[in-house]
Amino acid sequence: MSPRLRTRTDVGWLLRRQPFGEADLWLDVYTKGLGRIRVLAKGARKVTSRKGGHLQLFQRVHMTLARGQSWWILTQAQTQTWFPQLRTDMHAYAAASYVAELVLRLVPEGERLPGLEPLLGQALEAIARLPYGPQWVPRIFEWKILSLAGYRPEWDRCHRCGTPLRLGEPKAFDPRGGGVVCDGCRGPQMPWISDRTWTLLRHWATKPLPAVLEKEPPQDLYPELTALGQAYVRTWMERVPKTWRVERQLGEGHHER
Ligand SMILES: [Zn+2]
Questions:
Q1: Residues 217-247, buried b or exposed e (16+ Cβ, 10 A)?
Q2: Cβ of 188: how many Cβ atoms within 10 Å?
Q3: Residue 170 Cα, ligand 1 centroid: separation in angstroms?
Q4: How many Cβ atoms are within 10 Å of 48's Cβ, its own excluded?
């Protein structure tokens, strides 16, 4: 092996796979050590490949990587964790795809957000294991990842005038300003936020994801939480994530299940 070839090992969640050439795969992986990386898996689509079986979406893979010119080359892969439901249940697959897309949109290649790797694991596990996971994990993950990325909204005070906010007083959400505003500071485009939703979002902001999901959030707040979360995500992204459309179509079936 050339002395210039840097190799290292890392573990990460496989978020996107794209066929390349005859038998290769491009992988987008969010790893514990390197953050978001792009990895070339040569020959991974050959029937005889030993790597191929370890490279399914949403798996946590232990990888040995060699540094290429501007990407990593996969030399060995071993699956550590995977949740079969994410590939067999359509709603779970759509939710996991949305979570993956948020990571790919918000975290540029080569960047690492401290805390995101374990959060991803918690999110994928909850989607797979909880009956209400596919519906609720995307809603909660939106706020969690934006907070890790530095866009944690102000919940306790009006972010414009600093007035402490109380139950029973009208309040609105300002996605561009990054928080809740009082009645007097509300602009025309800012949606009202109900007291119950405000209380729930404050709870989500202070508790880790598994604790938030210990019981199912109230179903009647789902539309309001969806509108607020997507308004906030949209503010921080160039365009609407394409999996939203898929999720919305599937979402219509949630209540019948
Ligand atoms: Zn105010």
A1: beeebbebbbebbbbbbeebeeeebebbebb
A2: 4
A3: 11
A4: 7
Residues with CB under 5 A from ligand 1 (ion): 158, 160-161, 163, 182, 185
- How much is the pTM? 0.88
Q: What does the pLDDT look like over 59-82, one tens digit per residue?
A: 999 999 999 877 899 999 999 999
| Tens of pLDDT, residues 228-251 | 998 888 887 754 455 555 555 555
164 alpha carbon to ligand 1 midpoint, in Å? 9
Q: How far is the CA of 162 from the centre of ligand 1 (A)?
A: 6
Contact 95, 83 (CB under 8 A): no
What dihedral do alpha carbons 119, 125, 129, 130 form, nearest 10°? 20
List of domains in the chain: 7-81 (2.40.50.140), 86-252 (1.20.1440.120)
Contacts of 125 (CB under 8 A, 6+ apart): 83
